[in-house]
Every structure is written in structure tokens, then in C-alpha cells.
Amino acid sequence: MIDRLIEKIEKTGAPIVVGLDPTMKLIPPQILKKHMDERGECPEAVADAMTEYNRGLIDAVADLVPAVKPQIAMYEAFGLAGLTAFAETVRYAKEKGLVVIGDVKRGDIGSTSEAYAQAHLGKCVIGEKTFRGFEEDFATVNPYLGSDGVKPFVKVCAEEKKGIFVLVKTSNPSSGEFQDREIDGRPLYQLVGEKVAEWGEELMGSRGYSYVGAVAGATWPHQGKQIRQLMPKSYILVPGYGAQGGKGADLVHFFNKDGLGAIINSSRGIIGAYQQEKYASYGAEAYADAARAAVIDMKEDIAQALSNL
Q: Rounded distance, CA 209 to CA 4, Å?
């Protein structure tokens, strides 16, 4: 799957992933109203609105970007109906040819981690039949329970030719409370980065990149440079562009000299573009067109930054 992601990045010329993180504040009011008029004020109405909203976004950007990244928490908030919307979003994105990164941040001890890996990347066998859960192509993984929380995902990646992105240095302001703490004179995120490189050594794609990647926030460009050096063969998923303050100029060190090695996420900055002053002329009715315009601007910003590699 890492080879397919790279192929699509090269085809689109956009190392960009669109975060599909719908909230009631972001879903255009006409979509929410339509489904609440039909079903009432209930989780099922919101889930249906999410699905319609996401379909419009996917249709608008599918030819511009290689991947989307639905954040499962936004869907789980609405219970089983929300999870159905998550599953439908994954299915529709894959139908449109997009790589899907499930932002699930799972990680637990042995058998529990095995179940998470099975749900999001693998399959389950019931009698003589095989079933799949959510069917993402990649999943985000929390490594802070140690290797026995990550290795079940690595095993499924090997079996299914899928991938993971392991949290190393996250984009949020308080990430340093733990991730920057020094152990034997080095910050914890560097030690985690070394483990990511180790976990991925045996799972290499044909382009020289591992199935096991890392998450490192655009809000920490200096740390991103260090992480890139620690794991030259791992792809880095970089959140924090746009709404969290990251800019194209912050991203250069996350990439290798071949112009590959990183994929940049923007969520609210794209899916909520119609609410921003820059794209306000589109209005809520044309939210998808606003999202497309935001992707084009982001693509240009990143290309300009990478021209200095």
C-alpha cells in the first residue's frame, strides 16, 4: 500500500491528505436541516448529514489528492449511526480511487491490539467465511504501551500489504509534556522514532519506503528535521497544516531529497474552507468548491516550499 500511496502522490503532484473530520459546526446548515427535517433531531440525522457532506468533499478533491483521513472520533461521538457514516465514508473514498488513512490512534496490549488491527486493517474469520471491518489502507497507532501494542499492527500490515503511521511527535501544543521529556539525555520522541524505523525494517515497499511510518506535526519543524534523519525510510504523516498554524515553509525538512517521504494533512482548513474569509464568496451551498480551491492553494504552497529541496 505504501507503493500505491507514493504512486498516487506522484500522479497528483500533491503530497496532501484531506482530513475528513466532520462536526456539526462544519457541516453546511442546509445539509443538516435536510436530514433533521427527514429524521428529527437524532444521531441518525447527523450521521446521514456527515455522509452527504463527505461525499461532496470527496467528489470535489478526488482528482487532486492521493488520500483522505477520516478521524473516527468525530463519528464515534454519534454512536452506531456515526460509525456507519465512518464506514460509508471509507467505502466511498476507496470507490473513488483514494487511499484511506484511518485516524484511529489505536494501541493497547497484545490481544486487544490484535483486535484493533483486525478491525481496521485486517479481517475476521467466522466459520468458513471471512469478513472485513472498516477496511482502511492505513491506520494511526499510539505506541506508548510499547512494542506489544504495535507489533500486532505490523503483523497485519505484512499479511495485508497495508500500513500504519505511529505517533512520534504530535502537533498539539502540550505534546512536549511527555514527548519532549529526556531519557538518557535524549527526548522521548527520538527514541520512539528509532523504534518506528526498527519496526519497519522488514516491511519495505519497492520504492524503498517502509509500510511503517510516523506521525510528526508541522507545528514542530525543528523536531521534524530530527525525525526525518532518524527514519529515512519511513513515510511521515504531517498534521497541523493550516488551522493549527503550519505553513508550506515549515514542511521542507519532513521530506527526503527525492521530494518524497511525507504527506501533509489539512482538515478544517479544507473541509471548512467555506467558513473562512478567503473562500467566503463560495457560501455554504458551494462548500465543496471552496474545499477544492483550498486544496489547490495548499498544493501550490507546498510545491513552492519543496522547490528549495
A: 11
Q: Output the CATH code of domain 2-306.
A: 3.20.20.70
Grid cell for residue 73: 472520533
Q: Please tell me the total number of residues recorded for the chain in this structure.
A: 309
Residues with catalytic roles? 105
Contact between residue 295 and residue 274 where contact means Cβ atoms under 8 Å apart: no
Residue of 240, 196, 186, 244 whose CA lies nearest to 218: 240
Spell out the domain ranges in the chain.
2-306
Contact status, residue 254 vs residue 307, Cβ threshold 8 Å: no
The answer to whether the pTM exceeds 0.90 is: yes
CA dist., res. 170 & res. 216, Å (int):
5
Higher pLDDT, 282 or 172: 282
Three cell numbers written together for 87? 464506514
Q: What is the pLDDT of residues 189-211, one digit of tens each?
A: 999 999 999 999 989 999 999 99
Q: For residue 297, count CB atoms less than 10 angstroms from its CB and return exposed for 0-12, middle for 13-18, buried for 19 or more.
A: middle
